[in-house]
Amino acid sequence: MRKGDLFLQHGIMGYAIFCFWYGRLKNDNKYTEIAERCLMHVCKSVNDKCSLGVFDGLSGIGISICYLCAEDYLQGNPDGLLQSIDDYMFKVIQKGLQQEHIEDEKYMDSLLDVMLYINVRLRTEIRKPYEKHILELFFIKILNWLYQNAGSLLFEEPLPANLSYRLAKFFFVLGYACDLNFYNYRIKRIIKEIETVVLSRIPYSSFNRLTLYCSLSILTRQIRLGERWTLYIETLKNSISIEEILCKEIKSYNMFFFDGLGSVYLLYKYCNKNGLIFDVSEDCFIRKLQASEIWKMLDDSFDYKPLGLDGFLGLIMVFENRLNFFNTVNGEN
Q: Potential cystine with 327: which of 42, 79, 284, 332 (Cβ 3.0-4.6 Å)?
C-alpha cells in the first residue's frame, strides 16, 4: 500500500475492501476493525483536489462504498457518505465540461469512470427524489459532451492491452445505464451513429477483444442491436483465444488486475457464468500464475510485494478459492 494514497488501485480504499472481505472469510473481527478505520480515514480525507478515476480517484471510492453496502459490510444508507463525494466530483467536472474540446485524454478516461460511478450510485437508496433526477441529468450531460468531443480517441485500442480500453468501457457504461431506463432512446441513437466505425474493425489484441466482447454482451442484454451487431459479436468471440492471451500477451510479471492475469480470469469467469463458454480449463490460469515471476516473490520478504488491490491483495481475492495464498506465504506450499 502506497503511503498517502487514498484510492482503490494501490491505496487505503483497496486495503479496506480487502480487510472487510478477508475478515468475513476468516470470521476475524480484527480485519473488520482495520477496514472500518481505513474507510473512516478515506471519507475524512477526500476533497475536490482528488482525481476522478475508478482506480486512482473519487469514482473508485464511491463505487467501493456502494459495493460495501450492497454486500452488507456496511449497515444503513450510504447516502450520507456518498453525498460529499458527489459534491466534490460535480464541482470538478463542471469546470471541465466548459471546455470546447478534450485537451487531456486522461480527462476523457475520468469521465467514463464518473459515468460508471453514477450508474452504481443510482442503484443505491437515494433519500430525496430530486437528487436522483440531478444524478440522471448529470450523467446525460457528461454522455453528450463526451460523445460530441471524443472523436477518434474513443476507438483507440490500448497496446499492450489493459482495462483502459475506452470503447469497451463506453459500451459497458451504456449497457449498465440502459438497465436503469432513463435515457435509452439517446443511447440507441448513439450506438446507431457509431455502428459503421465499430463494425469495420476488430481489435488487434485478443485481450482487448475479450474485454470488448464482454462489454457488448452486457449491452445486448439490455437492448436489441440488430443482425449486423449480432454477426460482429459472434465474429469477435470466434477470434478470441484465451490460450493466446495467456501464452503471448500476459507476461510473467503481468499477474495483477489492471493489465494482467487477474482481469482476464474475471472476464473468463463472467463469460462462463453467462453461457458464453470458452473451452479452457481454470487450471491454465493457475499454472500461468504459479510459473510467473510474481509467484516467486511469495518466497521473498513481504516488504517488497505490491500489496494493493492491483497487487497481491487483489490476487488473493480472485484466486483464494483455488489457492491458499497465506499458507504459501508461510512456507506451507
A: 332
Query: Across residues 109-124, what is the average pLDDT?
Result: 95
Grid coordinates representing 74 are 456496511
Please, how many CA atoms are within 13 Å of residue 99, restricted to the half-sphere of its CB? 16
pLDDT in tens, 226-245: 999 999 999 999 999 999 99
Who contacts 72 (Cβ-Cβ below 8 Å, separation ≥6)?
none
C-alpha 6: how far from chain center: 17
Q: Identify whether the C-beta of residue 55 lies closer than 8 Å to the C-beta of residue 9.
A: yes
Q: pTM of the prediction?
A: 0.92
Q: How many CB atoms lie within 10 A of CB 93?
A: 19
- Degrees, nearest 5: CA angle 254-152-111: 65
Please answer whether residues 15 and 23 qualify as being in contact, where contact means their C-beta atoms are separated by less than 8 angstroms: no
156: left (phi over 0), alpha (psi -120 to 50) or beta: beta
The string of pLDDT tens digits covering residues 240-283 is 999 999 999 999 999 999 999 999 999 999 999 888 888 889 99
User: Cα–Cα distance between 332 and 193 in angstroms, integer?
Assistant: 57
SS3 143: helix
Instruction: Decide: residue 126, CB within 10 A, 0-12 exposed, 13-18 middle, 19+ buried.
Output: buried
Rounded CA-CA distance 70/74 in Å is 8
Q: Is the pLDDT of residue 27 over 90?
A: yes
Element (H, E) at 309: none
DSSP 308: S
Helix (H, G, I), strand (E, B) or coil at 76: coil
Locate 232 and state its grid cell.
460482429
Q: What is the mean pLDDT of residues 61-88?
A: 90
Rg (CA), the chain: 20
